[in-house]
Amino acid sequence: MFSIGQIARRTGVKVPTIRYYEQMGLIEAPERSQGNQRRYSKAELEQLGFIKHARDLGLSIDAIRDLLRLNAHPEMPCAEADRIASEHLANIRERIERLQRLESELSRIVKSCNAGTVKDCYVIRALSDHSLCRDEH
Amino acid sequence: MFSIGQIARRTGVKVPTIRYYEQMGLIEAPERSQGNQRRYSKAELEQLGFIKHARDLGLSIDAIRDLLRLNAHPEMPCAEADRIASEHLANIRERIERLQRLESELSRIVKSCNAGTVKDCYVIRALSDHSLCRDEH
DNA sequence: GTAATCTCTCTAGCGGCTATAGCTTCAAGG
DNA sequence: CCTTGAAGCTATAGCCGCTAGAGAGATTAC
Ligand SMILES: [Zn+2]
Ligand SMILES: [Zn+2]
Ligand SMILES: [Zn+2]
Ligand SMILES: [Zn+2]
């Protein structure tokens, strides 16, 4: 049996975050000690590790809840899990593309300023006028 | 003189967002009509366009506030504006790198599942075990 | 004059935590 | 057994950048 602090240290998830996950229904309310403190089993520790890793990979709480439900039914087909992961991947790719458009626009803007006064600053001018931009964002 | 709805349509910034920007100190409280409705000048319309463009480029409210203050002092050196833009660019580059690491990890994971049952699903296994990952995230 | 459309303020909610306050419980040392 | 200090408890509020809704009043077009 582990205290909340112990599983926090072992998984790298902070104590208030663990309580938050419980509230959000990611983890079941665990057993309690006589003095009402949370006591976790090894299985619960591992589940929290799963959640941590999924969060580190950028999955949302909702997506993780669905994945945990699937994980509890090992004989079901995994198509749903694969779909969640693929959708997340597509989402990440979109974000990368958007950020790359911003990156190219911003690096052009930053390079174009020859550091004079605000009145002549290309950064300021570019912000005032989207038509100076190369593409959309 | 423009109503809030008119500048919303012209700039593409939604009405509640304009009020929010006012509350956040990005734009001054404008004149009011006899019936207490906001009335904007052309200069204020343009300033909102500046804000919209800066937001579209991903700048934070705080950064935009600073840029607007600089914009009001055309004779000052623009080093500060350039610094804000460069910092933001660096920040975007970091986010791109992080997302690219996630992308490569996730695309590997998604590709590795041969769509069987949950018990054998590589997506689920990879989430349970970070040591299956190629790099950190 | 009336109806339709804006606009007003105020409040609450989103996601994913994080921080604080004021309390209780636990574990270790004497 | 008792004390002390760390750790845990609940409840509440705050972060960012909006967005949504309620219930009221203002404006505009016909
Ligand atoms: Zn400059
Ligand atoms: Zn632009
Ligand atoms: Zn699978
Ligand atoms: Zn990993």
TrEMBL record, chains A, B:
CDD domains: HTH_CadR-PbrR-like
InterPro entries referenced in this protein's UniProt entry, alphabetically: DNA-bd_dom_put_sf, MerR-type_HTH_dom, MerR_fam
Chain segments annotated as coiled-coil in the UniProt record: none
Keyword DNA-binding set for record: yes
UniProt KW keywords: DNA-binding
Family annotation (PROSITE patterns): HTH_MERR_1, HTH_MERR_2
Residue ranges occupied by any HTH merR-type domain in the UniProt entry: 1-70
A family per Pfam: MerR_1
Transmembrane segments: none
Protein name: Helix-turn-helix domain-containing protein
Organism: Hoeflea poritis
Origin organism lineage: Bacteria, Pseudomonadati, Pseudomonadota, Alphaproteobacteria, Hyphomicrobiales
